[in-house]
Amino acid sequence: MPQVLSPQFECLSAIELIKEFNEFVLSYSCTNLYSLYKPIGTPEEKDELVRWLNAFQQRHSGIEETYAHVKRVTVRAEMLASLLNLNVKSVRLGALLHDIGKVAIPKEVLTKPGKLDMNEWNLMRKHVTIGEEFLLEFPMLATDSVLRGIVRHHHEHWDGSGYPDRLTREAIPIEARLFALVDVYDAMRFPRIYRPQSISSETIYEYLQEEAGKHFDPELTNQFLEIERWVGSLVA
Predict the structure, then answer these.
(1) pLDDT score for 121
(2) Closest Cα to residue 148, out of 169, 124, 168, 164?
(3) 68 to each of 9, 47, 74, 96, how far by Cα in Å?
(4) Other residues' Cβ atoms within 10 Å of the Cβ of residue 108
(5) From the CB of residue 176, how many other CB atoms can be counted at a distance below 10 Å?
């Protein structure tokens, strides 16, 4: 078992921890995203947030994978944040809201089964800055630097080849570096509109290791893989 457990988990045995994790997954599976967002902020902020989320829902209607993806990455990101002693609440919100900027992306781009052309790709890349602009509409969200860092920077690369700011190494917020691993793992592990086949966990682990030092933070990649293999061994 990796030696990165936070104090809140140290009293749990491996079986108790995985049981708690499984119950956590189940609770997310039984709760739609609308109700997960709803408790945030003042009544005025809630009204505006509901307006955005209704638009998000309409833009993604019929794209069930969008909701499943957000649920899965939120569960995994929150668990990893706990194990790595990061701000769990902010990481949870970042995972939930990481793609909220896609509300402004045309549905035909979001649902295109093939490769995006250059114009479509440039448009898709804007979702991170649009997402941050969304957060700035809500004082409670705008003041959360961890949340903003995840939404804006989860597509940055360790070597500076990502977007939107081409940040490098530790200039990328650690929570965004962690979420990048979670996001890519889930995108590869489960079928997507542009790739209907899933990829095995071991193949993904090999890819993440190959990209360590390029796309991903090398140290976080090692910790991510250690935790994933450990959790996998408990449920095997």
Answers:
(1) 93
(2) 164
(3) 26, 24, 10, 11
(4) 8
(5) 26
Integer Cα distance of 41 and 50 in angstroms: 11
Of the candidates 38, 46, 89, 102, the residue annotated as catalytic is 102
Could you report the per-residue pLDDT of 10-56, keeping only the tens digit for each?
333 334 444 444 444 334 333 443 444 445 556 666 566 656 555 55
For residue 102, indicate whether it is catalytic: yes
Round the average pLDDT of the chain to a whole number and report it: 77
**Whole-prediction pTM:** 0.75
Distance CA 166, CA 41 (A): 32
Where along the chain do its domains lie?
7-235
Predicted pLDDT at 41? 58
Over 87-113, what HEC string results? CHHHHHHHHHHCCHHHHHCCHHHHCCC
Quote the tokens at residue 53: 């989320």
Which residues, including other chains, have CB under 8 Å from residue 35's CB and lie 6 or more apart?
Answer: none
- Answer whether 164's CB lies under 8 Å from 128's CB: yes
**7-235 CATH fold:** Hypothetical protein af1432 (1.10.3210)
